[in-house]
Write a structure and sequence with these properties.
Largest sheet: none
Strand content: under 5%
Number of strands: 0
Helix content: over 70%
Distance between the termini: 71 Å
CATH class of one domain: Mainly Alpha
Mean pLDDT: 78
Order of helices and strands: HHHHHHHHH
Oligomer: single chain
Low-confidence stretches: 1-14, 126-138
CATH topology of one domain: Arc Repressor Mutant, subunit A
Structural class: mainly alpha
């Protein structure tokens, strides 16, 4: 019996042991204080251990794309570093704060991807702004290459949209993605139809320029 008790005392506690959780939280709090003071090593020790869980539990399952998930993880860490001063310690792991940032980044990713896909489809149909449709081919390898090219173009479109003036972006979204008539686009932008036509022309020009730079 005495041997059993000694073994229990010397055993490694389970990861969900309250004592282990409390010690880990205290360590994170100390690292947080040092990181806020400019200690880069503490910042690395604070954030790096959370990366695997964020990637495998939060980001990758919601994207299904390892390359995109890696980009989102990087963006999550950049945002965390930029906003570290805003994080309020409440006695639990910083992981939960990082998880929310990562989830928001995933949502942003899907919004950009969906918007890019819709715009690419519309551009392909109408031939407006840029040419994005890959040439059709009966060969499987060529079709695969064409599909990959189209995916890259969709990503380029999403990035180009983010790069232009917000008002120009709104004009393109209303006209080409939402497919609203010119009159409704003008109403939502609170301009006349003639002014909207000029705005859309400038938006198209800005988009072409941004798309060509990608």
């Amino acid at each position: 019996m005495r041997h059993v008790e000694e073994s229990r005392e010397g055993a490694t506690p389970a990861p969900d042991d309250p004592q282990v959780v409390a010690l880990a939280a205290k360590r994170e709090q100390r690292l947080l204080e040092r990181a806020r003071g400019g200690d880069r090593e503490a910042l690395r020790d604070l954030l790096t251990p959370q990366a695997d869980a964020l990637f495998s539990r939060v980001i990758l399952p919601r994207t299904g794309d390892r390359a995109a998930a890696e980009d989102i993880l990087k963006a999550t860490m950049v945002t965390a570093i930029e906003k570290l001063e805003t994080f309020r310690w409440e006695g639990r792991s910083i992981y939960f704060w990082l998880r929310q940032i990562a989830a928001n980044k995933v949502i942003d990713h899907h919004r950009r991807t969906q918007r890019g896909r819709k715009l690419a489809d519309r551009l392909e149909r109408e031939g407006e702004l840029v040419s994005v449709a890959p040439k059709a081919s009966p060969h499987p390898e060529a079709r695969l290459i064409a599909q990959e090219e189209q995916q890259r173009n969709q990503q380029r479109i999403a990035v180009a949209l983010e790069a232009i003036n917000p008002r120009y972006r709104k004009a393109i979204e209303l006209r080409l993605i939402a497919e609203l008539p010119r009159e409704e686009c003008a109403r939502q932008l609170e301009v006349t139809v003639g002014t909207f036509d000029v705005l859309f022309f400038r938006a198209a020009r800005a988009f072409r320029r941004a798309f060509g730079e990608r």
